[in-house]
Amino acid sequence: MNYTKLATELADVKYNGMTDEEKAAELNVKDKALISPISSTELLAWAGGNQRLLRLEDGAVNHVDDDIKNVCKVALEMIKRDGTQLDLNLADRLAMVGALIAGGVLTVFDNTELEALANTSKQSTADILDLGAVKLGHVKEIK
């Protein structure tokens, strides 16, 4: 157990007023989405729905904004090139998707379906902090 990480987490105001038992339980609740990279295979399947691939191809050629044209071309390469991944944990990838939505190439619904592909499981705060299962005794050690 990394008690330094545990102590830092338990110092957060969200744990104020909780008993030690409640704190341990809260740390172990698997309620945070784990965002996994999306493979090019999955991206291609996603792009096949709702004419997304056609919209990206059209945007790469006909969009009035050169920046959006460029992002469309990058997205097409990512989708079509085998072995690539879209990691929505990365700010520049999120910005790319945001630009495609702002430019009218993709919709909020398209993004919701894309995010659903990336959210593959749930994790706890203890998982995120790499603490393992937090037990009552661990929490009692932090005083």
Structure overview:
The protein contains nine helices and four strands, in the order ααββαααβααβαα. The model has no long low-confidence stretch (mean pLDDT 94). With 143 residues, it is mainly alpha-helical. The strands form two sheets. A two-stranded antiparallel sheet has the order 1-4. A two-stranded antiparallel sheet has the order 2-3. It has a domain at 35-122. The longest helix has 15 residues, at 66-80.
Brief summary:
The protein has 143 residues and is mostly helical. The protein has helices at 3-10, 20-28, 40-47, 52-62, 66-80, 91-102, 108-118, 125-128, 136-141, and strands spanning 32-35, 38-39, 85-86, 119-123.
SS-based class: mainly alpha
Number of strands: 4
What is the percentage of strand-forming residues? 5-15%
What is the residue-mean pLDDT, rounded to a whole number?
94
Task: Give the terminus-to-terminus CA distance.
Answer: 15 Å
How would you sum up the major sheet? 2 strands, antiparallel
Radius of gyration, in Å, reads: 21 Å
Count of runs of 4 or more consecutive helical residues: 9
Low-pLDDT windows of residues: none
Helix content: 55-70%
Give me the strand/helix succession. Answer: HHEEHHHEHHEHH
Large-scale geometry: elongated
Strand order of the largest sheet: 1-4
